[in-house]
């Protein structure tokens, strides 16, 4: 699984960080998403998929490398 | 088939039970996804009820919040048009919505909210202690649901505990478009504005660790700060946005879980379901209030219907959240539903700024009650629950419980 994030779309809701803190973080100064792990391994993939599905700004894209 | 209803429906739509959706939702989604409605002001708007349409309009930059435009529909009869076009909204609009939002977002990141969690747990435990002490039956909305979000916001704004009750009253008055008269609403706004102005002066002299203290000196990327009027409007906006919404949602969530007690029992047996149960309560809420109005700045097409420039649309997120095309078994409350891309907090760049905080408050209330009062149950039949009057935020008048 390959993860990309769109900082311009991100609205800082923080859902992804709550769901997958190993993969996503937010910048301290404006809350915009920070990708910690662009190729998360299997045990994390379900929560990453959920984060992408529920992101209110549709700022998380998943692809297969 | 669209806009086919020749006589506009009266909006808000009414429903039989306090927890039931209006009968029209299913029919509108199916046959009339862009429906003519008449608002309490008498003006007409177009109501959207399908998931895809609501989601698209909420994130479309051609649909704005410029509801004070000359030809925009007025929402209510009151002169100011209520919270959607109050001076507060105008002051924040002038600050530049996105710029203002960016200055605030850092206060509502997942990390910040997680850091607030122990404090929220302690406040909830204290409110539950006090409720238990007074004995049952108790109105858990008044005892827990209503005070908790005000306490949290007061903490965030650096407002002393002793002023929490005044904050709660102001918030209640400013959000009600029908329960209070315009003079009362104006008076509450003026009193609250004066309080915040004095509070800001105090913070300027003696800054704390709170949000307002930080905003007093904060600047955006261009080095511009907020004016005093914008700072007062910020305090007002956070109270209006964060209090009654969350307070009512706490009550409705508990009512949904207790009205069919096997739902509550399932959570008692497996508290790890709290997170998904909260999301499902947000999705399943059939009484969320008005919905989100938008002003169409350029012609757009929704559900194969042209919405001309100047149209006011009302997005019913709650109707969209029951759309079978997006949610399998949409009319069932499924406590472990995942993923749950509901629209209770809106969608797109304007989606709710405080959603992590709201989620944490809802999860905390549920966790604390499951731990402290697993025998909790409704003290009246669910059919006797009544909706609050008022227009913007939907909720229950009271929620009598025993344990």
Quickly count the domains of chain B.
1
Number of domains of chain A: 1
Write the H/E string of chain A, N to C: EHEEHE
Percent of residues of chain A in helical segments? Answer: 25-40%
Which structural class should the secondary elements of chain A be placed in? alpha+beta
Provide the β-strand percentage band of chain A. 15-25%
- The helical percent of chain B reads 40-55%
Looking at the overall shape, the CATH architecture of chain B is Orthogonal Bundle
The CATH topology assignment of chain B is Cytochrome p450
Shape of chain A: globular
Overall mean pLDDT of chain A: 95
N-to-C series of helices and strands of chain B: EHEEHEHHHEHHHHHHHHHEEEEHHEE
CATH architecture of chain A: 2-Layer Sandwich
Q: Low-confidence runs of chain B (pLDDT<50, min 5 residues)? A: none
Radius of gyration of chain A: 10 Å
CATH class of chain B: Mainly Alpha
Strand content of chain B: 5-15%
Domain 4Fe-4S ferredoxin-type (chain A): 1-29
Organism (chain A): Streptomyces scopuliridis RB72
Keywords (chain A): 3Fe-4S, Electron transport, Iron, Iron-sulfur, Metal-binding, Transport
Pfam families (chain A): Fer4_13 (PF13370)
């Amino acid at each position: 699984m390959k993860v990309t994030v769109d900082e311009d779309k991100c609205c800082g809701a923080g859902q992804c960080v709550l769901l997958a803190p190993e993969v996503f973080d937010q910048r301290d100064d404006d809350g915009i998403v920070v990708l910690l792990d662009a190729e998360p391994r299997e045990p994390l993939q379900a929560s990453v998929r959920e984060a992408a599905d529920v992101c209110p700004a549709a700022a998380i894209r998943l692809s297969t490398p | 088939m669209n806009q086919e209803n020749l006589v506009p429906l009266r909006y808000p739509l009414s429903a039989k039970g306090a927890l039931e959706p209006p009968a029209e939702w299913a029919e509108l989604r199916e046959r009339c996804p862009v429906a003519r409605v008449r608002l309490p002001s008498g003006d007409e708007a177009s109501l959207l009820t399908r998931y895809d349409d609501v989601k698209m309009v909420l994130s479309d930059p051609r649909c704005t919040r410029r509801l004070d435009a000359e030809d925009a529909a007025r929402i209510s009869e009151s002169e100011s048009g209520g919270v959607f076009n109050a001076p507060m909204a105008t002051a924040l609009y002038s600050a530049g919505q996105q710029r203002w939002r960016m200055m605030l977002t850092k206060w509502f990141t997942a990390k910040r909210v997680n850091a607030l969690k122990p404090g929220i747990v302690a406040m909830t435990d204290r409110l539950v202690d006090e409720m238990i002490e007074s004995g049952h039956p108790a109105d858990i909305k008044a005892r827990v649901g209503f005070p908790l979000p005000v306490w949290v916001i007061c903490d965030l704004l650096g407002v002393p505990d002793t002023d929490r009750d005044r904050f709660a009253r102001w918030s209640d008055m400013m959000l009600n478009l029908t329960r209070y008269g315009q003079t009362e609403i104006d008076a509450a706004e003026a009193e609250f504005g004066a309080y915040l102005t004095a509070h800001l002066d105090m913070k300027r002299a003696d800054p704390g660790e709170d949000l307002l203290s930080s905003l007093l000196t904060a600047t955006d990327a261009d080095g511009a700060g907020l004016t005093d009027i914008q700072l007062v409007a910020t305090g007002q906006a956070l109270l209006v946005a964060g209090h009654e919404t969350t307070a009512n949602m706490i009550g409705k969530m508990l009512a949904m879980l207790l009205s069919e007690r096997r739902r509550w029992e399932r959570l008692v047996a497996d508290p790890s379901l709290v997170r998904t149960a909260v999301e499902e309560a947000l999705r399943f809420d059939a009484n969320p209030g008005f919905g989100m109005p938008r002003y169409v700045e350029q012609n757009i097409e929704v559900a194969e219907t042209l919405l001309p420039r100047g149209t006011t649309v009302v997005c019913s997120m709650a109707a969209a959240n029951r759309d079978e095309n997006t949610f399998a078994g949409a009319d069932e409350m499924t406590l472990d539903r995942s993923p749950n891309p509901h629209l209770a907090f809106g969608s797109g760049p304007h989606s709710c700024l405080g959603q992590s905080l709201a989620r944490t408050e809802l999860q905390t209330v549920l966790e604390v009650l499951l731990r402290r009062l697993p025998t909790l149950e409704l003290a009246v039949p669910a059919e006797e629950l009544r909706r609050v009057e008022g227009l913007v935020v939907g909720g229950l008048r009271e929620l009598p419980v025993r344990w």
